[in-house]
Design goal:
By secondary structure, the protein is an alpha/beta fold. It is about 55% helix and about 10% strand. The chain is built from 12 helices and 5 strands.
Length: about 290
């Protein structure tokens, strides 16, 4: 959940707390230079009232809230200024216009995903994969297809990836997994109950988990220290096809594959070529560009 959603959607807000919430939303660009005391003076309340509000919505205090809110504001103000990720094309667009708009959506989504990629978390995820004998992938939706592509690449360099489309079976895998295994759990909302049960079991058993989810706090990301963020611009339901989420998921998994590949580049390149050549004995083309 984004910070602004916490502000607006918090239950049981008093009239005074709603006034504070409105102030934060209306003045998001100027909070950097404001203290709890300066805001309190403007709203004719005690500074402790501002601090208690921030604590009520899940922060340690005003400074903690302000830093998170400003970081989120910067993220949301970048990218997607000229295209709506929920409706990247409209009713009367012709095919070539749609193609251009989808191309622009790809570019914006990749740039957005890159801006959310924390190098430390990417390195941690790469190390987890490198040390794991088996990698289990679970997803609450269509992103499982991107997981299948990830599996297809990894198996060609000798890394075992197991994909289970049934989350009940994934839960049993979590029960039986060894400490030398790891899990990649993908959920845009981060609130899918069956996937949360898997993550809770992994945390209980101290099995490494890489979480791929939306930016902002959610229940799934709270269950692992290793989180990679999807581009977070689409509505959960009110969109034309989950384009941006799927593009972002593919980008993150491609990056994970490439990052792992690079940990032993020469060996992985040789084994991939050897394994592919053994199966694709007669694969050829008359196009010299791709031979």
């Amino acid at each position: 959940m984004l910070v602004r959603e916490k502000i607006v959607e918090s239950a049981n807000l008093t009239k005074l707390e709603k006034t504070i919430a409105e102030y934060f939303i209306e003045n998001e660009t100027t909070l950097r230079n404001e203290s709890a005391r300066s805001i309190a003076d403007k709203l004719y309340v005690a500074p402790s009232t501002i601090i208690r509000f921030c604590q009520k919505i899940g922060f340690r205090g005003y400074n903690d809230f302000r830093d998170a809110f400003l970081e989120e504001t910067i993220y949301l103000s970048n990218h997607f200024q000229d295209i709506d990720p929920n409706r990247p094309f409209i009713k009367n667009d012709r095919s070539h216009i749609i193609a251009n708009k989808i191309g622009a959506l790809y570019q914006e989504t990749i740039a957005d995903s890159l801006s959310l990629l924390v190098p430390r978390n990417l390195q941690e995820a790469t190390d987890i994969i490198r040390k794991s004998e088996n990698i289990f992938i679970g997803s609450a939706g269509d992103t499982i297809e991107m997981g299948q592509t990830f599996r297809n690449r990894m198996i060609k360099i000798g890394k075992n990836v197991i994909i289970d489309t049934r989350l009940d079976n994934l839960f049993y895998e979590a029960i039986n997994a060894r400490k030398t295994d790891c899990f990649i759990l993908i959920s845009y909302s981060g609130e899918t109950s069956r996937l949360l049960r898997v993550a809770e079991k992994l945390k209980e058993r101290q099995i490494p988990a890489i979480i791929i989810t939306s930016y902002g706090e959610n229940s799934l990301s709270n269950l692992s220290s290793c989180t990679l963020y999807l581009s977070t611009r689409e509505k959960l339901i009110d969109n034309l096809g989950n384009f941006s989420t799927l593009i972002s998921a593919a980008f993150i998994l491609d990056t994970l594959y490439a990052s792992y590949f690079a940990t032993n580049y020469e060996y992985n390149e040789q084994i991939r070529k050897k394994n592919s050549s053994e199966f694709e004995l007669k694969r050829k083309s008359q196009n010299p560009l791709i031979n």
